[in-house]
Every structure is written in structure tokens, then in C-alpha cells.
Specification:
Layout: H1 6-16, E1 23-25, H2 28-31, H3 69-77, H4 84-87, E2 95-96, E3 102-106, H5 111-116, H6 123-134, E4 143-146, H7 160-177, E5 181-185, H8 187-194, H9 199-202, E6 207-209, E7 212-217, H10 220-225, H11 230-243, E8 247-249
Parallel strand pairs: 1-8, 3-4, 3-5, 5-7
Antiparallel strand pairs: 2-4, 6-7
Helix pairs in contact: 1-6
Uracil binds near residues 106, 110 and 124.
């Protein structure tokens, strides 16, 4: 275990105060404190369509845009549209509540996610879970997905063609879940959901996607490499909390 960070401090406070307050009263000194991330081994757990912008069809003849989540997941499980399917162990469709009001979108599975078939279960995932908890949500209450559903080799960013072939699945997920707020984790979802570049400038700025409020923030993997930036991410996340009436009082 490493030193606790800002999110641990907030979660600890919320636990102590559980049931009594609806806000996280975290001192300035905590906000100004930035620690290295907690190192834990990720725990073990779970898990021929041609959908693309030009051919959004399942072999059954169903359009991706007409599928429900079960059909979509089955389609993703069998997807061979791009080269990423060749090296995957599992597809990684989503985690959490399909009726969630809050959705998080990352870039793509890493090694742990590929092994387990679930998004954000490795080190970055553990930090994301703590960020969610600090926001006074449980991980099971939110919906988590990625731009691409198969692991890019060596954790490289998805190539443009890979992302473009995969994105109809995610867009249908967004449509079906219909969250109130989407949090984009890093530059890759910023590029493919909003068509924008420049996460360092655009994080913390409200955007909109099909009538849904969108908040870009910094990717947890980046925060692991740059712990001082956790303060900036926490500022972004508090803006999202406010939408849900969860207020952080300084
Ligand atoms: N990083 C991501 O962007 N997504 C995951 O699922 C895991 C790590």
C-alpha cells in the first residue's frame, strides 16, 4: 500500500460521515496534498457483425442502431471488424448499471481488462473507482465503457480506423443508457466523442453530445503518472457532482 491520496481522504471522510451528510467537507490542506497512488494487485473477477459507420449491420440483418444491449454485447463478442480482435482474450463491453445517470468513457482495455473482460479493473481502474467513490457514487451505480472494445497491443492508443469501426457500438450504448452526464476520460474519448483535441485545455469545460452533458477530464492512467494533476481532475469531477446535487463544501 502506498500513501493515501486525495480520493482516499475524501472517501474516508464520507465513510465517517455516512448517512449524516450529502457533501464532502474536505479541507484545503487535503486539496493541496498530492500523494503517489496506492499500489494494489488487481483482483480477479469476471468475463459476425459488420457494424461500422458505412455498414452498421449484424449478419442477422439487424442494424447496430436498432439493437438492445444484450444483442449489442453479443455482436461485440463476435466482432472481427478490425485487427484488434486477433490479439484479444476477451472483448470488454461495459461495467455497471445500464440505467445509470452517470457514464464514464475511457479509451480501451489494457492487459487486466482484456484478461477479465471488464473495463477499468487494473491500476487505472482502481483509481477510477476511488474517483467515483469520492464523487459519492458507488461504482455499480455508474456505467463504464471504452472507445474500443478490444485491447490495443502494448497499450498503445487505438488507431483511427479501429476507433471508427468500434464507435457505433459505443454510440448505441450511449443511446440506450441515456445518461444525464458523460465523463470522458482523457484525449481519446475527447477526440472520438466530441471530435476535439486538447485535453489539457478542454478538461473541466462542459460540452454536449446529443443533448447529454459531457465533462472531459484527465485519464486515471495519466493521474497515476502525474499525481499533482489529481487536483485538477477533482475540480472537474466536482462540477459533475453538482449536477447531481452532491456538493463539495470547502
Ligand atoms: N484504460 C482505459 O481507458 N480503459 C480501460 O478499460 C482500462 C484502462
Amino acid at each position: 500500500m502506498g500513501k493515501p491520496d486525495i480520493f482516499d481522504e475524501i472517501i474516508g471522510y464520507l465513510k465517517e460521515e455516512s448517512g449524516r451528510v450529502k457533501y464532502a467537507n474536505v479541507s484545503e490542506c487535503i486539496l493541496n496534498d498530492f500523494f503517489s497512488d496506492v499500489e494494489k494487485k488487481p483482483g480477479k473477477s469476471a468475463a459476425q457483425a459488420k457494424p461500422s459507420p458505412s455498414t452498421p449491420f449484424h449478419p442477422s440483418g439487424r442494424k447496430v442502431s436498432e439493437m438492445d444491449l444484450d444483442e449489442l454485447r453479443a455482436t461485440v463478442n463476435n466482432c472481427t471488424l478490425c485487427r484488434l480482435h486477433e490479439s484479444r482474450t476477451n472483448t470488454v463491453f461495459s461495467d455497471g448499471d445500464f440505467k445509470a445517470k452517470l457514464m464514464f468513457i475511457g479509451e480501451g482495455p489494457g492487459r487486466d481488462e482484456d484478461e477479465q473482460g471488464l473495463p477499468f479493473v487494473g491500476r487505472a481502474g482502481q483509481l477510477l473507482t476511488r474517483m467515483i467513490n469520492a464523487m459519492q457514487f458507488e461504482r455499480r451505480e455508474v456505467y463504464i465503457a471504452n472507445i474500443v472494445k478490444c485491447r490495443p497491443p502494448d497499450n498503445r492508443n487505438p488507431e483511427q480506423d479501429e476507433a471508427e469501426l468500434c464507435i457505433p457500438y459505443l454510440k448505441r450504448q450511449i443511446e440506450l443508457v441515456n445518461p444525464e452526464v458523460i465523463v470522458l476520460l482523457g484525449a481519446v474519448p475527447l477526440r472520438y466523442i466530441l471530435g476535439k483535441v486538447g485535453i489539457t485545455k478542454l478538461h473541466g469545460v462542459w460540452h454536449e453530445y446529443n443533448g447529454i452533458k459531457v465533462m472531459p477530464t484527465l485519464h486515471p492512467a495519466y493521474l497515476l503518472r502525474n499525481p499533482p494533476a489529481k487536483k485538477d481532475a477533482w475540480e472537474d469531477l466536482q462540477k459533475v457532482m453538482k449536477v447531481f446535487g452532491k456538493v463539495h463544501k470547502k
